[in-house]
Amino acid sequence: MNHDPTDDHPTIAELKAVAQPPEHIARYNAEHWAGALYLRHLSIHATRVLLPTRITPNGVTWLMIVVGVCGAWMIPFLGLWGPVVAVLAMQVQILLDCSDGELARWRQRFSPAGIYLDRIGHYLTEASIPMALGLRADGWSLDSPADVGGLTVLGMLVAVGVLLNKAFTDLVHVARAKTGRPPLEDVVSSARPKASGMARLRRAFDYLPIFRAFVAVEASLLALVAAVVDTVGGDLLGTQVLVVAMVPLIVVTAGGHLLGVLSSRRLE
Predict the structure, then answer these.
(1) What is the model's pLDDT at position 218?
(2) What is the pLDDT of residues 171-212, one digit of tens each?
(3) How many domains, in total, are found in the chain?
(4) From residue 132, how far is each of 127, 155, 198, 200, 222 by CA, in Å?
(5) What is the domain extent for residue 146?
(6) Residue 268 resides in a domain
(7) What whole-number distance in Å separates Cα of residue 154 and Cα of residue 156?
(8) Which CATH number do you get for residue 85?
(9) pLDDT digits over 159-174, tens only?
(10) Other residues' Cβ atoms within 10 Å of the Cβ of residue 268
(11) pTM beyond 0.85
(12) Is residue 258 a contact partner of residue 107, using CB atoms and an 8 Å limit?
């Protein structure tokens, strides 16, 4: 669709046709389920509000980073309210994550810096959540900061696993670029393992998507559930159990992801 990138007052229909093209929304890995379910319906209105302002797409991405990281680090504090704030912050973060791209597509302002900042935002947020959970599990609060204990260390180890898991995806693009191969299409066939045994294992994990425990939206919801258990029990057992459970889950998630990459067609 041809449009005027300087038009700051398009109709929602005009904006949606350019900023939310079907081929973008239908991407296999890049679109979070919450985006397709409800946040894309909200983000297009947020983008329309942002258009008359002077904020750039990268400026929206910076705002996304601040909201996500600050929200994650609220988890240890304010009792139950800290995780509540974290859940709300992750919703706002993904909304802004939708809007920065929509703003870029309308204004026709694309840059490697925008993609780079987007990746940094997700790396920082999703690594911050398990570290913040570890601090909460060890009894950190605004009133009485505690010593760094074993659960904080476990949270940090989980954060390392989260970063590795994300790097396994991005390193595919690095490897392909360095060997002169075209960009990888974001379709299900590219991620399908070549060996039938691995393909069956991957399908099994589709029914038990444990990797989502380390995605910001889902991780914040788990933190809230654990905080509710803490509040009901009058202790920190819920958060402590969650942190301990995350250790084997991230080992399986990151290890399975690496095997999946190596056994698929993504590196051909």
Answers:
(1) 95
(2) 999 999 999 888 887 666 565 665 555 566 666 666 667 888
(3) 1
(4) 9, 7, 34, 35, 13
(5) 12-263
(6) no
(7) 5
(8) 1.20.120.1760
(9) 999 999 999 999 999 9
(10) 9
(11) yes
(12) no
